[in-house]
Amino acid sequence: MITFEKAYEIVMNSAFSTGSEKVSFMNSLGRVLAGSVVSDIDMPPFNKASVDGFACRKSEQEFELEIIETISAGRTPEKSLGLLQCSRIMTGAAVPSGAECVIMVENSELLPNGKVRFRGPFTKENIAFKGEDIKRGAEVLNTSRLIRPQDIAVMASTGSVTVEVSRRPKLAVISSGDELVEPHEYPVGSRIRNSNAGQILAQTERAGASGTYYGIAGDDEDLTFGIVAKAISENDIVVITGGVSMGDFDFVPSVLERAGVKILFSRVAVQPGKPTTFGVHPDTLVFGLPGNPVSSFTKFELLVRPLIYKMMGFNWEPLNIRLPMKESFMRRFAERMAWIPVRITGDGFVEPVEYHGSAHISALPDADGIVAMPAGLKILEKGELVSVRQI
Ligand code: AMP
Ligand code: MG
After folding, report:
1. With CB atoms counted within 10 Å of each terminal CB, which end of the chain scores lower, N or C?
2. How many CB atoms lie within 10 A of CB 131?
């Protein structure tokens, strides 16, 4: 049995790069940028009014000014300002030559003689100057970042309509266990619905990989072997849940070996999820996760998700929030490290969710995160600061 930290290190050291491909920027959300994005233009491309108002000279603010034209956004100014002149201008429009500032319309007064007067003076220019946000040729998005909606806006405004992104790892999901039926079926007798496959496909999607479901393998060794071998040949990562414990039908590790997988660990000193198995095949990384839904969920978050990001070149750090415990929390056995599902209360405290063990599937929807308790530690004291890792 190895420590969780060691297991994490082994998994991360097994990562290989999935390479890259070009996609439309509109399809790049959630992907990892595999090259930098460079601007083909200054932003803003011209001196731009940042308010609705009047463009004028700073030194003439206190005089009555003649209005020589109205400049709307998208239209090029036709006139430059002469002495004691201003132009009416809209937000986003190009500032005419001769103007040094824009006085907000709220601070202006139109006079019966058709001129305008300002309440002022004002020092604020209200102009976004050409190139002040982005210079043409500048790198606007660096490589290895996870692309978010705000990045898409930067790509759009800099003309980066095709971007290089890492290929999404292909991940196969296999469920094992004769007791399983698919979610649309009603389980009779001693059967239960397969909740792991949907959950892991969703976790795969959230981590930016592309998941394929290979079905329920049952507890049949040859059938499982056939599905596993096919999944290995078609994917970068294979996740099989169930069948990794010590039961009579827990033959997943031996099936993996038969399929040519070199097992690197099969027991991790962590709770939940002790019987987590991991192995490598020449082009595929294989996980055997415990069947219990809380275990498979947690192990995916802790081991598979960081691996997916690393394979895409994204140096992911989970968001950890440090908050105090609302009440003390005790555990009876402390020989293994534990991850405790917790809730963040409205008043900013941490409290463990009701949790009856790793089969307690309704514990996780109430949890905002998980808190690590190192081996040997039995109690988290009331008021003690703990790091909540978001799930
Ligand atoms: P195993 O890892 O096969 O010993 O399974 C441990 C527990 O998890 C058993 O109670 C199984 O019925 C349950 N289990 C296994 N696979 C799944 C699954 N895909 N969905 C929900 N529960 C499962
Ligand atoms: Mg089983």
Report:
1. N
2. 17
